[in-house]
Amino acid sequence: MVSDIKVEIFKGENGQGDFVAYEVPRLESQTVLDVVTYIQRKLDPALAYRFACRVGMCGSCAMMVNNRPRWTCRTHVEEVVKQGQLKIAPLRNLPHIRDLATDMAPFFDKMQKAGGCFVADATVPQHMLEIDPLSAARQEVDAGIECIGCAVCYAACDVAAWKADYVGPAALNRAWTLVKDERVADVNWYLKQVALDGGCTSCHTQGACSVHCPKSLNPSRSIAGLKQAMANAFLKGVL
After folding, report:
1. I need a surface site. Which of 131, 134, 155, 199 has the fewest CB within 10 A?
2. 78-123 per-position pLDDT tens digit
3. Which CATH class is domain 4-102?
4. For domain 105-235, is the CATH number 2.40.50.100?
């Protein structure tokens, strides 16, 4: 291909800045991350962005591409370019550091707030607990356990955009996998975490998290499961 791509990239610090235009050669099998890397190496060495594996494993290259959150290493230009143009910005709903880089700390803090750490049942015998991989509970866990914390779902979430204390779909998906895990010490403790302000009842079930998840997970389903489990626990008087 001989045509160029007109690329607009957000440049600035701490949320202040504007889009800057570049022209990048259009190549075969070119990814959006290839475009950003070309600009940093050839046109603007000061451009700040984040990436690591380049093969769709780590999720650290996530950015807004034409107003949608995506892994840029797995997004081919031909899939998203519109009339020869691309617009690339940092992920929504996270504090902006510089250019295309955001601060992921609040995202992981909310994961912890939702009870994201596994706490085993100390009363379980010392021999290994046998879990049937075909059990309904384990399949519920397996359906959500592949989240790698890339924050694409969080950036896609409109509730996270206007409700600062909402823990977000990734954190609630993680909580659901723990609620359904037969090895945890106290399921009701996790339910109490997600019942707090900013927990699962804040979700409006718009489904953007599930639509945009690069791992094809369904956080909306996990959150619905949490709501049902929380309601059952409330009726039983344990919440």
Report:
1. 134
2. 999 988 899 999 999 999 999 999 999 999 999 999 988 887 776 6
3. alpha beta
4. no
